[in-house]
């Protein structure tokens, strides 16, 4: 036993002595970010372009979210949760995750067109980068035009102080995007109002019954919540809401 113990100690000692040598042999990459004086205007321009690209990449997720079906879907799902009366159920992660899944489902035809007309030709060196961006913008504009109300579009055309467009191609993208966002907000809150109505009726009925019974200090929401949940489950609420949302984008 003593001999085995000595052998184990010897192996541990060799391992401890060899460990620094092993770490010393590992070379780590050196990352150096520095700012140097530009010797030519071309170098300064390239630096500005890199800075602009990094800024665009940082804002890209927000831009993509604001130009897709995500706005309407996440607002309607959040209003549905508030209408039921469950402040934290489903949790925010589930609401946002479901909104993202439904967004990808709704936007899949648009993304497929972008892949066919812009991404794949650009990866095969068939078109330039500018042509790829222009081709990718066409399906996105078509989607936004279908969901944009004329009143919102006329508002931003007026605010932009440009001539009245003769057709869709004459509408600038910087005018179309805020018009689309405002239209989606209006549509989402209209759908939310319709969803709130049946739950509001339940709250009023329960509150009237409690007042008539003299239970004025009992919160009506506590009694009404089980009835809301039963009604929502019986009518298959999530199915109906999801179906109406997807069909709303199909029109």
In short:
With 251 residues, the chain is mostly helical. 78% of the residues lie in helices and 0% in strands.
Explain how this protein is built.
- The protein has 251 residues and is mainly alpha-helical.
- The protein has a domain at 58-195 and 237-250.
- The protein contains 9 helices and no strands.
- The chain has helices spanning 2-25, 41-66, 70-84, 92-123, 129-147, 150-160, 173-212, 220-234, 237-250.
- The radius of gyration is 30 Å and the shape is elongated.
Largest sheet: none
Task: Give helix % range.
Answer: over 70%
- Helix and strand string, N-terminal first? HHHHHHHHH
* Number of E-state strands: 0
Percent of residues in β-strands: under 5%
Calculate Rg over CA atoms. 30 Å
The quaternary structure here is single chain
- Helix count equals 9
Shape: elongated
Low-confidence stretches: 4-28
Averaged pLDDT: 75
What is the CA-CA span between the terminal residues? 83 Å
Structural class: mainly alpha
Tag the structure with descriptive keywords.
single chain; 251 residues; mainly alpha; elongated
């Amino acid at each position: 036993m003593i001999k085995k113990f000595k052998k184990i100690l010897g192996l541990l000692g060799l391992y401890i002595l060899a460990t620094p040598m092993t770490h010393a042999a590992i070379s780590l990459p050196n990352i150096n970010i520095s700012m140097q004086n530009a010797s030519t205007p071309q170098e300064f321009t390239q630096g500005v372009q890199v800075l602009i690209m990094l800024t665009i990449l940082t804002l890209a997720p927000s831009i993509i979210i604001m130009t897709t079906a995500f706005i309407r879907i996440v607002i309607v799902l959040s209003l549905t949760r508030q209408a039921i009366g469950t402040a934290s159920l489903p949790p925010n992660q589930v609401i946002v995750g479901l909104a993202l899944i439904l967004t990808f489902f709704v936007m899949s035809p648009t993304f497929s067109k972008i892949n066919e007309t812009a991404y794949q030709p650009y990866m095969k060196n068939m078109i330039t980068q500018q042509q790829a961006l222009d081709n990718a913008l066409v399906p996105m504009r078509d989607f936004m035009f279908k969901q944009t109300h004329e009143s919102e579009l006329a508002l931003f055309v007026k605010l932009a102080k440009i001539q009245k467009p003769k057709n869709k191609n004459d509408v600038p993208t910087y005018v179309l995007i805020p018009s689309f966002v405002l239209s989606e907000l209006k549509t989402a809150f209209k759908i939310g109002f319709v969803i709130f109505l049946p739950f509001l009726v339940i709250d009023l009925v329960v509150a009237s019954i409690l007042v008539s019974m003299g239970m004025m200090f009992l919160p009506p929401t506590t009694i009404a919540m089980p009835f809301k949940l039963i009604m929502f489950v019986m009518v298959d609420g999530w199915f109906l809401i999801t179906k109406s949302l997807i069909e709303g984008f199909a029109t």
